[in-house]
Amino acid sequence: MIAIGCDHAAVKLKNTIKEHLIAHGMEVEDFGCFSDASVDYPDYALKVAEAVAEQKCDKGILICGTGIGMSMAANKVKGVRCAHCSDTFSAKATRQHNDANVLALGERVVGVGLALEIVDCFVNTPFSNDERHIRRINKINDIESKYFK
Ligand code: RB5
Q: Whole-angstrom Cα distance, residue 97 to residue 48?
């Protein structure tokens, strides 16, 4: 199950990504928002991040104007590794190296075609399970344990 969410700046791209994932046989839980009425992106980042952190969803996708605010907010949730990507190389690498569990995209940054390719890389690339990458992720977890309640 993929959790998806956006703010008012990215409803169109969110709907396109949702349809794309469903067309490729994936299940999607849509946490909103659902119109271009102004909302606050952290509210939607939190919904998606919590769904992933609580393992109700396997991965999350967050879209706002830039992807930056969504990624900042999502990364405040313990257990979330949100990668803000505007290219396919990063989307693939962040799955292989960082085991990123949330992707953040900017509707005002990437075109639809590139966004869908980034999404495909993110959902289809497995974590490498390489010992050095596991060690580094564990160090991220240590930082969480030090600074999060
Ligand atoms: C909304 O105008 C915009 O600030 C938001 O979509 C996002 O880009 C924030 O990081």
A: 22
Over residues 46-59, the pLDDT tens digits come to 999 999 999 999 99
130 C-alpha vs ligand 1 centroid, how far in Å? 35
Distances (CA, A) of 114 to 3, 7, 19, 86, 104: 20, 20, 15, 8, 13
What is the 110 CA–ligand 1 centroid distance (Å)?
A: 14
Q: Is 133 a catalytic residue?
A: no
Give 25 Cα–ligand 1 centroid separation in angstroms: 30
Is 6 among the residues known to form the active site? no
Q: Whose CA is nearest to atom 6 of ligand 1?
A: 65
- Which pLDDT value is given to residue 47? 98
Give pLDDT tens digits for 66-112: 999 999 999 999 999 999 999 999 999 999 999 999 999 999 999 99
Measured by CA distance, the residue closest to atom 4 of ligand 1 is: 65
Which of 98, 102, 95 is CA-nearest to residue 73?
Answer: 102
CA nearest to 80, candidates 108, 56, 116, 64: 56
